[in-house]
Write a structure and sequence with these properties.
By secondary structure, this protein is an alpha/beta fold. The protein has 6 helices and 14 strands. It has an 11-stranded mixed sheet with strand order 1-3-2-4-7-5-6-8-14-13-10, sandwiched between helices. The chain has a 3-stranded antiparallel sheet with strand order 9-11-12, with no helix packed on it.
Length: 321
């Protein structure tokens, strides 16, 4: 595919107006909807992934805007990967609601056992197609949005190298260190990203509520800041006054609550980052079982309404920095 021409008339990003992916279907990497651009100067390979969940358009907005602006690396290589395109395009095909996935959650299949297994879902087929790109990345940013109207988050995983990278990035300013989900391995934790001895690193950004018009702008800022921090584009162009950043906060997740029954229900509406002052406060019921906070000043991270058995309903964490 020929080099894309910069579009100087880019409209403001809106998370409720997802872009068409038609210009990117052919790709230029041998993989549909995956575009990669290399500079003449050596540097890291940075991969930006969007729409692992088809109902989270902010990443598609960010990648589309960067591609149409003609953004190219000054050194190293940038790869733009639109992941679960099939789920994303079901919206255009008249689906009654945006589709998170077609057959299974694409952000739970990233382990060798699953990728090399006998499964044949639409998400697994696409993950296997993307696997060489992911395995060639020195750094990866996976762009997501949330069910609730919560402030943006950087999810860095449980390792020290992930925490360091997230704190160096500085945006979003709230960092969540967690081990993922019982239902399967996230892309952020795949392979060398989950090995402290490897220099390869990844973070996941949650850019706000799915349909919030601001989430596209947050995704853009996070993505450009990520590649600028790594020196792939000019970092001076992305510098912002330190006063623009709220106080940085790190939350360490101590427990991910997985729904065990279809009757999981919170005791009230939680928006995310709610701080429950007293240990033993009941926050939900899972069938007949009461779910209570295990310690004082417990932070509820990304509570999800309507969870099915096996899905993460909420993460419980404490502020550590």
């Amino acid at each position: 595919m020929p080099d894309l021409v910069a579009d100087q008339t880019i409209a403001p990003a809106r998370a409720d107006e997802p872009p068409s992916l038609d210009p990117y279907g052919e790709g230029n990497s041998g993989i549909p909807y995956v575009l990669t651009f290399a500079a003449s100067r050596p540097g890291p390979h940075v991969v930006l992934t969007a729409i692992l969940h088809g109902n989270e358009p902010c990443g598609a907005i960010a990648l589309d805007r960067m591609l149409r602006s003609g953004l190219r690396p000054k050194r190293g290589r940038i790869t733009f990967a639109f992941a679960n395109v099939e789920a994303y395009l079901r919206r255009e095909a008249g689906a009654p609601a945006p589709c998170r996935f077609v057959e299974e959650d694409m952000n739970r299949v990233w382990s060798p056992a699953v990728l090399d297994g006998k499964g044949g879902s639409a998400e697994l087929r696409r993950a296997r197609m993307l696997r060489p790109v992911v395995e060639s990345a020195d750094y990866l940013l996976d762009i997501h949005s949330m069910q609730n109207d919560s402030e943006p988050l950087l999810l860095c995983g449980p390792l020290a190298k992930g925490r360091r990278l997230a704190l160096e990035l500085g945006f979003p300013s709230t960092v969540v260190a967690d081990a993922g989900h019982a239902a399967g391995t996230r892309l952020r934790d795949y392979g060398a990203f989950g090995d402290e001895a490897s220099p390869r690193n990844a973070v996941l950004v949650e850019c706000g509520q799915h349909a919030d018009p601001r989430s596209g702008e947050i995704a853009m800022r996070a993505a450009r800041g990520f590649i600028a921090h790594l020196g792939v584009i000019d970092p001076t162009a992305e510098r912002r006054p330190e006063t623009a950043l709220p106080g940085r906060l790190m939350i360490e997740v101590t427990e991910a609550v997985t729904a065990a029954s279809p009757r999981f229900q919170f005791t009230q509406r939680f928006s995310g980052l709610d701080r429950i002052q007293r240990a033993g406060t009941v926050i939900a019921h899972d069938g007949e079982k009461a779910i209570a906070t295990p310690y004082d000043d417990c932070v509820l991270v990304m509570p999800a309404e309507g969870c099915q058995p096996g899905q993460t309903a909420v993460r419980l964490g404490r502020v550590v920095a």
